[in-house]
Write a structure and sequence with these properties.
The complex is a heterotrimer of chains A (156), B (283) and C (791). Chain A is an alpha+beta fold and 156 residues long. Chain A is 32% helix and 16% strand. Chain A has two domains: 76 residues, Beta-grasp domain (Ubiquitin-like (UB roll), Roll); 67 residues, [2Fe-2S]-binding domain (DNA polymerase, domain 1). With 283 residues, chain B is of the alpha+beta class. Classes of the chains: A alpha+beta (156), B alpha+beta (283), C alpha+beta (791).
Chain lengths: 156, 283, 791
């Protein structure tokens, strides 16, 4: 493809170097180029949050960032937060409290939960609801997701 | 979901940004947080041929206090403004407004300069900047200039910014008695109507008032009639109500969409003017 | 010594599905990559109604990476019209429009390209010239044949001209006797009439649709992965349309990111992917954008009702007349025409109404077709009836809960044959109502509302009671067949593998079905694996919809399990008592062991019996080796779960903005296998119902342009839109299946809409309002508060 630009992005602690089309969205870069398919895409208007990842520690919708913009950054995706046996407390909360049904919004929701707890160790229920207001879930009615984040907050 | 092809350039200084823009002819657009532009590109409603990334220009970052004013770099994100101790202490309305924009992820990425340059008629920041009489600092090939926010927003998605200019920062005198009140559009959470009130109070008396409005018309603007109705008055429920009652009277070409008719929007201008002024006066 | 295995059914067990999903390791359809895979993009109509004059694909065809560009007219040569699942007459509906477009977003051409970016570029380069026709938008205008005909062969745009039902309707003779209904209305103390719209909604599963089709030429086999609720139906339909024999088609539902009914359908894009993969001999992928999903994935609801209700001044309702007009959009999809018939079926609600007349007309319009969306016809019926009952209470100045109580079908009347032809299986509605009123502190809430009102606040209370038809089956009630399939295999190791024709996509059946088998075999849940969603693995099946997985899928799983268990008991008996004739039905499976009921001290381990069954030396008389059985089963009737919802809302007097303050729900879905999962299902249903009541609506303008074409204008409920829901349950098992489970997937969507609108009407009662159509758009409420607007 014409017009390719080199990028170097540290993804889940691993330096990744690729030549990409400038128009390649970070979400597609993660999914297609790196095979990190835990980052999902649920809308095309920067609202649903299914594609939420952390860029340099901040939650961001990866469908609204070009891969070239993330050049030189550190990106954390759901694949980078914890693994079975050593789950992140937010992941654990989602499991314990039935914070997911179809699982599609879950990775983004977890990333938002992690970002929220990084900024606010002990959020109120309203703060949790606001903290995940950039993430849509059609299955759960959010109540168990709130419980999941409360679980993680309690665990610290 | 998939934007048109474009060339990508990265600027490391304001001057480089301007010259890259010049090079790209009329194909170029600045890209900072991208949270106004990229969504449009994904829907192919905007198809720039060249994007100039200005997110790494050091001069566009930072929030500083200088000579009794606050200056916020155009590249500062909404989240940074929302959580800035300086802004929250000296001019909380700006932080509160920033915290109302979009959602946490959008605030982590979207920038003040981007919001102003894009000038979405329903964006939150413009109302507050208009009410604060904030100066928009702009640099072009000919050097620096400053424009009052009230003059900066000219029309739907149209601002006083030449093809070869860049917004570098916004500067304003902090205001204690200031508030922003907004009616959320329930899908997008943009402002169906948003009103910012900045009052200069002396006891219960309002020495001067500045009111900025967004969402109601094609661009953010002052509500001059409300400003004069409040100025010099002792603020009582009656004087505030009287000023709010005329808030929509001078508005022309009020927005109409699925979510609100003209009649409803006009009334919401009155309602939210009242709320913003009450809240500003009570601080 | 065997480990004690606690009883699993009824326990709050965390889900077995979750470890993969919380790590981002689930495989959804867009996560599938095959070597040589190409990508599809669809050029869609940007107008609602028009004749295709020409399509210029020349530029698209010449673009780099483009393999094929094909129009509807070309596809028609080898891809017949799409089949449907209802018996009503239906116009041809091609996967890609041939000569005329009938809704905005209808496909008109297809691009196959090397990647999705190039495919999209090429689709944008296709130029279509239309002769624009007037858009048929308002169903009541459409019924007059105006302003145009959507399909020439359907006079006055009537897809289903007239279906009567209720008292005095003789289905066999096709006659309608109105005397009882007329008498009821003639003798009534009052009659109330109201037009009610149950608005269109977009299902919006968070994962939009997607398909990967892989035809392998030498083998003449097709494997199709699709984000579907029913892979077996997908297999059947795709085989029929592509001409590949159904024993050469394998359909796979990978991880599916929500369905809510919209993924029951087999869509044009599925057929096109299959047919073009066959033509090109290459794997193809198509992933729907959200913008496409709003335009071209089925919508739900869209039913208008004219309601007349009559009764006596003591609160007894004596008659109900409902005329339904369904705005079904441009075509019949798989169940489109049947959904409004479910609305009709449920028009008794939970009441013993002596005379009911229902009439249904279905109308074509230039919109996306409607079809099943969570609740699928029943929320509409519930809404109409519950709003009408609330109007009665308001008219008589009675407590709405007491009006319900007065008209309820009583506990001793079950099974109850309704005027609409349903036979409600079991129920004790008063018990559920009483619990809900108690949990809500109903009298206290009323006092709180009155206090708020006296302070000038607009606070209202709503109560609703619903009954739904679930556990869909028997076959007479479902064109696909109303059964379900399962197989259960005890492996050589003693682990258990089960397959199910249910195709869960969030419902947690891997967990609940494991719980069931663990109890059935007395083994740990972790020893059970549930396989689903792959027709190559699960031999037959119907799928997941109509809240049928637990009631029908769960029951057939038990049946298959019983067969294996019987056989295994005989092997165990032979091991324990090799020389005697024994009664295998006396065997107990517990804690990983099997023993005779009267000799628990003498047992064999489950694993040893399994091993023996696969190397049966000696082979017990009358037994064949192996432990694997399958079962088909269909229920004799649907199930009828029910519940009571109570809400409190406040409306901002200045802005008209409604805010939900409280929602209390008591649901009765029969036996509960996993309360945690059931609560999750109810929460989700409530959120969708509340969304419908308060913020969701699909809107087309007069030209048929979809105004709510993205989340910018279609309000998706967010976490900040809800209070914490307060749930409770009563348990009234169904006699229809041995498990006693009724189904719960859709329940929340039924009670919540009338409950909230009733509360809104209550909040605004001082303005004399008796009905408000959904959604509760702030401007609409502001107009009521300001008596039509402010001058």
């Amino acid at each position: 493809m014409a017009n390719e630009t080199p990028v170097s992005i540290k993804v889940n602690g691993k330096e990744e170097q690729r030549d990409v089309e400038p128009r390649l969205l970070l979400a597609h870069f993660l999914r297609e180029d790196l095979g990190l398919t835990g980052t999902h895409i649920g809308c095309d208007t920067t609202q649903c949050g299914a594609c939420t990842v952390l860029i340099d520690g901040k939650s961001v919708k990866a469908c609204t960032v070009f891969a070239v913009q993330a050049d030189g950054s550190e990106v954390t995706t759901i694949e980078g937060v914890g693994a079975e046996g050593e789950l992140h407390p937010v992941q654990e909360g989602f499991w314990e409290e039935h914070g997911l049904q179809c699982g599609y919004c879950t990775p983004g929701m977890i990333m938002s939960g992690i970002h929220l707890l990084n900024e606010n160790k002990n959020p109120s229920e309203q703060e949790i609801r606001e903290g995940i207001s950039g993430n849509f879930c059609r299955c759960t009615g959010y109540q168990h997701i709130v419980n999941a984040i409360q679980y993680a907050a309690k665990k610290g | 979901m998939i934007p048109q092809e474009f060339q990508y350039r990265r600027a490391t200084s304001i001057d480089e940004a301007i010259s890259l823009l010049k090079e790209s002819g009329d194909e170029g657009k600045f890209l900072a947080g991208g949270h106004s532009l990229v969504p449009l590109m994904k829907l192919r409603l905007s198809e720039p041929g060249v994007l100039i990334d200005i997110s790494r220009i050091p001069q566009l970052s930072g929030i500083t206090e200088k000579d009794g004013t606050i200056q916020i770099g155009a590249g500062v994100t909404h989240a940074e403004v929302a959580s800035s101790d300086l802004v929250r202490r000296l001019c909380p309305v700006v932080s509160e407004c920033a915290a109302e924009i979009g959602d946490p992820q959008v605030r982590n990425r979207g920038t003040l300069g981007g919001s102003l340059a894009h000038a979405d008629p329903a964006a939150d920041y413009p109302a507050v900047m208009v009410a604060l009489n904030a100066e928009v600092h702009i640099k072009g090939p000919g050097g620096w200039r400053a424009v009052k926010s009230g003059d900066f927003f000219q029309d739907l998605f149209t601002v006083d910014l030449a093809e070869d200019e860049i917004i570098a920062a916004v500067q304003f005198r902090p205001a204690r008695n200031a508030a922003y009140a907004k009616l959320h559009q329930r899908a997008s959470h943009y402002a169906l109507v948003g009103v910012a009130a900045v009052l200069e109070m002396e006891g219960r008396t309002c020495r001067s008032a500045s009111i900025g409005i967004t969402g109601a018309t094609g661009h953010a603007q002052h509500l001059a009639n409300v400003e004069s109705a409040l100025s010099g008055k002792e603020l009582t429920p009656e004087t505030i109500a009287a000023a709010a009652r005329i808030a929509a009277d001078d508005l022309e070409e009020v927005n109409v969409d699925l979510h609100a008719s003209e009649e409803y929007r006009r009334d919401m201008v009155r309602v939210f003017t009242k709320r913003a002024v009450e809240q500003a006066a009570s601080r | 010594m065997a480990v004690v295995t606690p009883k699993m059914i009824g326990e709050r067990i965390k889900r077995r599905e979750d470890p993969r999903l919380i790590q981002g390791l689930g495989t959804y359809v867009d996560d599938i990559k095959l070597p040589g895979m190409l990508h599809l993009a669809f050029k869609r109509s940007d107008i609602a109604h028009g004749i295709i004059k020409s399509i210029d694909v020349s530029e698209a065809q010449s673009m780099p990476g483009v393999e094929l560009v094909i129009t509807g007219a070309e596809l028609k040569e080898f891809l017949p019209p799409m089949p449907i699942g209802t018996p009503f007459p239906s116009p041809d509906h091609y996967s890609v429009a041939v000569d005329r477009v009938r809704y905005q977003g209808e496909p008109v051409a297809v691009v196959v390209a090397a990647d999705r970016y190039l495919a999209r570029d090429a689709a944008d380069a296709i130029v279509v010239d239309y002769e624009v026709l007037p858009a048929v938008i308002d169903p009541e205008v459409a019924m007059q044949g105006q302003p145009a005909l959507v399909h020439e062969a359907f006079e006055n745009n009537l897809a289903v001209p007239y279906v009567p039902g209720g008292t005095g309707f003789d289905a066999e003779a096709g006659t309608v006797d109105n005397s009882a209904v007329d008498k009821a209305f003639a003798e009534a103390d009052f009659t109330l009439s109201q037009r009610m719209m149950n608005q269109r909604l977009a299902p919006t599963a968070m994962e939009a649709r997607g398909v990967v089709a892989h035809y392998e030429p030498g083998k003449d086999t097709l494997t199709i992965w699709s984000s579907t609720q029913n892979p077996h139906i997908l297999k059947t339909f795709v085989a029929a349309l592509t001409g590949i024999p159904d024993n050469q088609v394998r359909a796979i539902a990978p991880e599916v990111g929500g369905g809510f009914g919209c993924k029951i359908n087999i869509y044009g894009e599925d057929y096109v992917a299959a047919a073009l993969s066959k033509q090109l001999g290459k794997p193809l992928k198509w992933i729907e954008d959200r913008s496409e999903a709003f335009q071209a994935t089925i919508h739900g609801r869209g039913i208008l009702a004219y309601v007349d209700i009559c009764g006596k001044n003591d609160g007894k309702v004596t008659g109900l007349k409902i005329k339904l007009i369904a705005d079904i959009g441009a075509y019949n999809m798989i169940l489109t025409a049947a959904i409004p018939t479910l609305t009709m079926l449920m028009l008794n609600g939970t009441y013993d109404i002596p005379a009911i007349r229902a009439e249904l007309t279905e109308v074509f319009t230039n919109k996306m077709p409607t079809d099943a969306y969570r609740g699928a016809g029943r929320p509409e019926g519930t809404y109409f009836v519950e709003r009408a009952m609330d109007m009665v209470a308001r008219h008589l100045g009675m407590d709405p809960a007491e009006v319900k109580r007065k008209n309820f079908i009583k506990a001793d009347q079950f099974p109850f044959a309704t005027q609409m032809g349903a036979v409600y299986d079991s129920g004790d509605y008063e018990k559920t109502l009483d619990l809900a009123l108690k949990n809500a502190n109903w009298e206290g809430l009323k006092a709180e509302r009155d206090r708020a009102k006296s302070e000038g606040r607009l606070v209202g209370l709503g109560v609703s009671f619903y009954v739904e038809v679930c556990g869909l089956g028997p076959s007479a009630s479902l064109p696909t067949g109303g059964w379900e399939y399962s197989s259960v295999t005890v492996e050589r190791s003693g682990k258990v593998t089960a397959t199910t024709g249910s195709s869960p996509h969030g419902q947690g059946n891997e967990t609940t079905f494991s719980q069931m088998l663990a109890d059935q075999f007395g083994i740990p849940m972790s020893d059970v694996t549930i396989l689903h969603g792959d027709t190559g693995v699960v031999k037959q099946g119907i799928g997941t919809f109509g809240s049928r997985s637990q009631a029908v899928g769960g029951t057939v799983l038990m049946k298959a399990g019983d067969k294996v268990k019987d056989k295994m008991a005989r092997f165990a008996a032979a091991m324990l008592n090799p020389n005697e004739e024994t009664d295998a039905s006396e065997m107990v499976f517990q804690d990983g062991t099997i023993y005779f009921r009267d000799a628990p001290g003498n047992s064999v381990t489950f694993a040893d019996v399994a091993a023996y069954a696969y190397v049966p030396v000696p082979l017990p008389e009358g037994l064949d080796p192996g432990l694997s059985e399958q079962a088909f089963w269909e229920p004799s009737n649907n199930t009828y779960p029910y519940g009571c919802h109570i809400s409190m809302i406040e409306i901002d007097r200045d802005t008209g903005e409604p805010k939900l303050l409280k929602l209390i729900a008591v649901d009765d879905c029969g036996t509960v296998v996993n309360p945690l999962i059931v609560e999750g299902q109810i929460h989700g249903g409530l959120a969708q119902g509340i969304g419908q009541a308060m913020i969701e609506e699909v809107v087309y303008d007069d030209d048929g342009q979809l105004i709510t074409g993205s989340f910018m204008d279609y309000a998706m409920p967010r976490a900040t839109d809800f209070p914490r829901f307060e749930l409770d349950k009563t348990v009234t098992p169904t006699p229809v299946n041995p498990l006693g489970a009724k189904g719960v997937g859709e329940a929340g969507t039924l009670g919540s809409t009338p409950c909230i609108v009733n509360a809104a009407v209550d909040a605004l009662s001082e303005f004399g309002v008796t009905h408000i159509d959904m959604m509760l758009r702030p401007e609409k409420l502001w107009r009521i508060i300001n008596q039509g607007g402010k001058s």
